[in-house]
Amino acid sequence: MQSQQFHDLIDWLIDGARSEPEPVAMMTRTCERLVEAGLPLYRVGVFVETLHPDIYGYGFVWRDGQETVTSETTVDVEGLEEYQRSPLKLMYDSAAEVRFRLDEQASREFPFFDDMRGEGVTDYLALPLIFMDGTVNGVSFTTRRPGGFSGADLIALRRLNGPLARLIEVISLREIATTLLDTYVGNRAGARILAGQIRRGHADTMRTAIWLSDMRGFTSLSDQLPPEVMVKLLNAYFDCQVGPILRHGGEVLKFMGDGLLAVFPIAADGSDEADVCARMLAAAHECRDTVAAMNYIEGNHIIERFRFGVALHVGQVLYGNIGGGNRLDFTCIGPAVNLAARLERIAGRLGRTVVASSDFIGLCAEGFVELGEFPIRGLSHTERVYGLEVETLQAAEGL
């Protein structure tokens, strides 16, 4: 083994592997440099749990001369039979090194090694990646060299483990921070917070298309249903909106009981405002269909014919940190948001699903009809309101 190349690799990891800032590229280059240093590696696997609403953990598998494969699992792997019968379980349970020579009888107890023998693997080593809080993740190494790993190989891989664990922990914590911010404040706001925009009053003005929606009959449902059922119902209802909003380029900023506030940012020069409004309208049509098709059944609780209303508007908002003390909220405020909220209430009074302001119609009028002028609470002037033509036709037909 080339000791200088190996020590250079250790120094590179300790220094944060700054020439390869992307996690997959960092691990791929680490494996390549281990081989260049003389370690007879065939396959390296890294397995890290995470904190994510939908993802349990990530996997990374490198094979010499092949493309690196990454994966994610949405379930707790500890409940899977594949995991229960794997050598990794021994490593996780003991938080200690696990090694098997594949010509030994003991390795026959693990189906995973049958596949590895088929690929010519002779030796397997799994090491715990122990984070500073005691969390155990794992890395495994295999070789196809006759006779397996040498004593020098094992010493080198054990020496590698500490610096690799620290770097993976840093990457994992940053990934978790990004995920949590995206989950709770949205990806645009999350990126701004990570960039350091966390002071109270730090806000920017931006032009955006505004989405403000509300479930019809929420108060009555809350009175009728147990709280735990109401939470599940709300999650199912919001699923009907969040997916379409994100797919069409919007960002969900806030859930307010049964209400949802989202923005579809417009370029600073306004060059894409018509396209942005068209995308928001497409999301509204999709949500209208999915909410109408929604039903919820749990035990004796059967709820059908869900209805909601959404107001579409365009205007300037103040976007940034607002709050008191050390508790801040990253949100948007301004007259445009207030008007959207008033329009949504008008939609409820008119029995409409989708209504739009005259500012929105000036950019995206297709499929709308005028509903009239309405007084807006808090404003000295009336607002011209528009609704979907298809809803006018359905009302006329008694649908």
TrEMBL record:
InterPro entries: A/G_cyclase (IPR001054), Adenylyl/Guanylyl_Cyclase_3/4 (IPR050697), Nucleotide_cyclase (IPR029787). Gene3D superfamilies: Nucleotide cyclase. It comes from the Bacteria. Residues 209-344 form the Guanylate cyclase domain. GO terms for molecular function: adenylate cyclase activity. GO terms for biological process: cAMP biosynthetic process; intracellular signal transduction. This is Adenylate/guanylate cyclase domain-containing protein. It comes from Rhodopseudomonas palustris.
